[in-house]
Amino acid sequence: MRENTPRRPDAEAEADGIIEGRNAVIEALRAGTTIDKIFIARGETDATLGHIASTARDRGVVVVEADRRKLDGMSRTHAHQGVIAVAAVREYASVDDILNAARERGEAPLVVVCDELSDPHNLGAVIRTAECAGAHGVIIPKRRSAGLTAIVAKTSAGAVAHVPVARVPNLTALLKELKDEGLWIFGTAADGDTSLYRADLKGPAAIVIGSEGEGMGRLVSEQCDFKVSIPMRGKLNSLNASAAAAIMLYEAVRQRLG
């Protein structure tokens, strides 16, 4: 009987998309593996780590300096040598891919923009709801955001295979681009001046979901055409980010079916 045999640390790491150690990360870059982020020990001036960082940046991979304690916590092999890469489960789409998906379906674009959702479970839940609601794509920032990691894929229940996810360097510039494409920007905000049930979500729309703790950033908020508040009838004054996304998306579905 082998059912209860513990998994080897390197097998667990592989399943979670964790790539540890200098040679392993260099080989992943050389092989063209889609990498979400590379974490490098803060303060290290080693030439090999510098080469890894510069190669990664040249390929558009986000490089993050991290304390060794963080790397130790991420490590499964306890031999990370100051560098850990996290593989993405699929390649990122472009914003054009998302807008083209709407055109191909003959539908007004419905896009979800996540403003620095750092919890992978929240991002996975948003992607799952976006797929179920028929949204054309999800857009996230390159930094200070969860990415398309194994945890996100698992939480999305496989939706990452069906929903294009784009990653952009600047959300403010992205929202301006979406406006130029004819989309209206609806941001979720507890103090929003437009009630959810008065928001017109039938046309081309981007729904902005703020971060778990702070909500939308100031510059992102300033780009919103409408700041939408979800009615709160209980004693709490806020919803989980993925729950807010679900409510907004299904109000859009209701209106578009009407």
Describe this structure in words.
38% of the residues lie in helices and 19% in strands. By secondary structure, the chain is an alpha/beta fold. α2 (22-30) runs parallel beside α3 (47-58) and α6 (120-133) runs parallel beside α10.
Pick out its properties:
single chain, 258 residues, alpha/beta, 60s Ribosomal Protein L30, Chain: A, Alpha/beta knot, 2 domains, 7-stranded parallel sheet, 4-stranded mixed sheet, 10 helices, 11 strands, 19% strand, elongated, tRNA_m1G_MTases_N, methyltransferase, RNA methyltransferase activity
Number of continuous helical runs: 10
How many structural units, i.e. domains? 2
CATH architecture of the largest domain: 3-Layer(aba) Sandwich
Q: What is the first-to-last residue Cα distance?
A: 56 Å
Rg, Cα atoms, Å: 20 Å
Q: Poorly predicted ranges (pLDDT <50, ≥5 residues)?
A: 11-15
Tell me the helix content.
Answer: 25-40%
- Major beta sheet summary: 7 strands, parallel
- How does the overall form come out from the CA principal axes? elongated
- Give average pLDDT, whole number: 90
Give the C-level CATH assignment of the largest domain: Alpha Beta
Strand order of the largest sheet: 7-6-5-10-8-11-9
Helix and strand content put the structural class at: alpha/beta
User: Could you give me the name of the CATH homologous superfamily of the largest domain?
Assistant: SPOUT methyltransferase, trefoil knot domain
Order of secondary-structure elements: HEHEHEHEHEHEHEHEEEHEH
| CATH fold group of the largest domain | Alpha/beta knot
Beta-strand content: 15-25%
Counting DSSP E segments of at least 2 residues, the number of strands comes to: 11
GO cellular component, one term: cytosol
Pfam families: SpoU_methylase, SpoU_sub_bind
Family: Belongs to the class IV-like SAM-binding methyltransferase superfamily. RNA methyltransferase TrmH family.
GO molecular function: RNA binding; RNA methyltransferase activity
